[in-house]
């Protein structure tokens, strides 16, 4: 088995040419690529959460039973494993649905689906959501994040769907509509789980 492309290279691939990047991810079908970019996303989110905690910030709504003032500390500690869980859940759901909805039973492997899910989730979330959050916080303060994300959060979600559709359609030889539905349900499933913990 050939070595997977490193996470930094996958992010750059998406920036240079999203369609070619996702075609490559689908063709290599290496779940380690999806996992590596999710690890980078989780680590970055964890470090940002630690910065928020050390700066004395707290979310409006934390985890039930947990002091809101300690939520970002909890998030910093568990961001990486949580993102791995979201990777397996979302990628697994997208894979199962792609195979079920395909007339041929879905041509792609589980590894291809996981690779596609990880890259199509992590790249937009890193580039269009988390990094803008960090920039807004550093430039304008914590209170500005909620207002600013109304503009870039939808772009991140759309980016995830576009990349996921591109990748799943290639991995499973699916029509665009079927790939879009599979990607959407996978992303929605992980979002429901993630929303319980991430702020």
From TrEMBL:
| Keyword Transmembrane helix among UniProt keywords | yes
Q: Which organism is it from?
A: Polyangium spumosum
TM regions (residue ranges): 37-56, 76-98, 110-131, 151-168, 180-198
Entry protein name: Yip1 domain-containing protein
Q: Which UniProt keywords apply?
A: Membrane, Transmembrane, Transmembrane helix
The organism's superkingdom is given as: Bacteria
